[in-house]
Write a sequence for this structure.
């Protein structure tokens, strides 16, 4: 094949220009940042699911404690208005032995030990139990905890909340808190 003279040869592009390289690096860095953000959200969502499962197990445990001591529920001994790490009762609850236990002392012991488990298993965990309309056979149980700032977007009570935070069925007493907790709700019927 005859060779063309250099003046007649087509001038094809032999490499990428610096501008093209910079644009491709910029686009790739946006992609890597998006992947890192999704990874962080994934870890937070996984922790939220684990906390919700723990809260469900704790609520079922408290429901069983209440079912085992219906007299104390009727006498309002299980009623707890948002017990958190900041407002725990002073001193351990009195231990009772089988013949000397009363419904009231058993309820006090149940609540003290239960709150200890909530604090140990959930971040800034708390519990609230109320009886709707003073019922002697029904109880509403809320298990509360705080999620990492990454998951709730760092939102405060004065700002708009995500749909997931608004969907939690939290007690009215939590509306006054500066950062909204996550809540698990369970209704108990004896």
């Amino acid at each position: 094949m005859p060779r063309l003279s250099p003046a007649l040869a087509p001038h094809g592009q032999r490499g990428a220009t610096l501008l093209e390289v910079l644009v491709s690096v910029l686009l790739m860095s946006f992609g890597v940042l998006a992947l890192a953000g999704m990874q962080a959200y994934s870890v937070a969502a996984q922790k939220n699911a684990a906390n919700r499962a723990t809260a469900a197990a704790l609520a079922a445990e408290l429901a069983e404690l209440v079912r085992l001591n219906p007299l104390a529920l009727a006498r309002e001994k299980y009623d707890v208005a948002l017990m958190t790490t900041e407002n725990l009762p002073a001193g351990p609850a009195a231990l009772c032995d089988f013949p000397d236990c009363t419904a009231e002392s058993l309820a006090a012991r149940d609540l003290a030990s239960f709150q200890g488990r909530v604090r140990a298993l959930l971040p800034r965990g708390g519990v609230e139990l109320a009886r709707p309309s003073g019922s002697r056979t029904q109880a509403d149980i809320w298990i509360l905890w705080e999620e990492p700032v990454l998951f709730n977007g760092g939102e405060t009570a004065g700002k708009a909340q995500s749909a997931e935070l608004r969907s939690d069925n939290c007690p009215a007493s939590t509306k006054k808190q500066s950062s909204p907790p996550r809540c698990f709700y369970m209704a108990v019927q004896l």
User: Anything to note?
Assistant: DSSP finds five helices and four strands in the chain. The chain has a mean pLDDT of 81. Residues 18-189 form one domain. Strands lie at 80-83, 126-130, 138-145, 182-189.
